[in-house]
Design a protein that fits this description.
There is one protein chain. The chain is 45% helix and 0% strand. The longest helix has 32 residues, at 97-128. It has helices at 3-10, 13-18, 66-88, 97-128. The termini are far apart. The chain is mainly alpha-helical.
């Protein structure tokens, strides 16, 4: 085993999810473009993992479920910023500090939306595709519920 493969295997899966790597081999990129802020191609995904061949579209409409994950990430981020605002600046009914937090939080959520959407897709796929340390020896499972005619109608 070479050093690059060993470093990929020793990287915890949480870091690979944050980097939007394939959950099966933890090496291939899920997205065509590495920069989430190239807005024309933010959500353009590879059809298969470039390293192990894992299909990223498991069924038609598969990533609808990632909207729930994205919502949970947005709520968690909002709660974290509210707690941080409360601890460092404070909240009061006597002034507008809460409304300042709402404005800043809204701008933060809009600014982080491309990153949150990608992260939600990576997390959603990781729920269904497990890491295989012997991925070179095992072929990836082929999706059964794919309709090529309906793939890009969403």
């Amino acid at each position: 085993m070479d050093m690059a493969t060993a470093s990929h295997q020793s990287t915890p899966s949480a870091f690979n999810i944050l980097k939007c790597k394939c959950p099966r081999c933890r090496q291939g990129n899920m997205f065509v473009e590495a920069n989430p802020y190239k807005l024309k191609s933010t959500m353009k995904m590879n059809e298969r993992c470039p390293s192990c061949g894992q299909p990223f579209e498991l069924e038609v409409g598969f990533y609808y479920g990632s909207s729930y994950v994205s919502y949970a990430l947005s709520v968690a981020l909002s709660v974290a910023t509210l707690v941080a605002w409360w601890v460092f600046i404070g909240l009061s009914t006597q002034d507008n500090r809460f409304f300042y937090w709402m404005a800043i939080n809204g701008v933060l959520l809009i600014g982080l939306q491309p990153v949150l959407m990608r992260l939600a897709r990576a997390l959603w796929l990781a729920f269904f595709v497990k890491y295989d340390k012997n991925w070179r020896e095992h072929a990836p499972e082929q999706p059964e519920r794919i309709n090529k005619d309906q793939m890009n109608n969403w």
